[in-house]
Amino acid sequence: QVQLVESGGGLVQPGGLLTLSCAASGFTFSDVVMDWFRQIPGQQREFVARVSRGGRVKEYADSVKGRFTISRDNGKSMVYLQMSSLKPDDSAVYYCGAERSYTPIITAGDVDYWGQGTQVTVSS
Fold first, then answer.
1. What are phi and psi of 30, to 5 degrees?
2. Could you tell me the pLDDT band of residue 105, with boundaries at 50, 70 and 90?
3. Which of 31, 34, 68, 78 could form a disulfide with 64 if both were Cys (CB 3.0 to 4.6 A apart)?
4. What CA–CA distance (Å, rounded) separates 122 from 124?
């Protein structure tokens, strides 16, 4: 049974730091590309970051480049999203996802497996 379980969300002040984690099980973790997306109610789920199977290639949305860092630990079947210099606009439910096949221009429809999401709220 495929499972992705996010954790680490919460309330943080503007300019603060937060690290999200995602634990994967039920599939061969090193065979998939791992992603983070986020969603605000009433809006489409948007791409945030992704990391290649081996962890060397990383891609980011322009809105988070230089502030967020994605990483993975294939030995632990974990993917992380370190978020810094957080802004109120970063408030959303954050989802981790897994792609079985790499898609150059990714959308939510290209993700094969999803977690349940974790809420991040940036507010003073």
1. -70, -5
2. confident
3. 68
4. 7
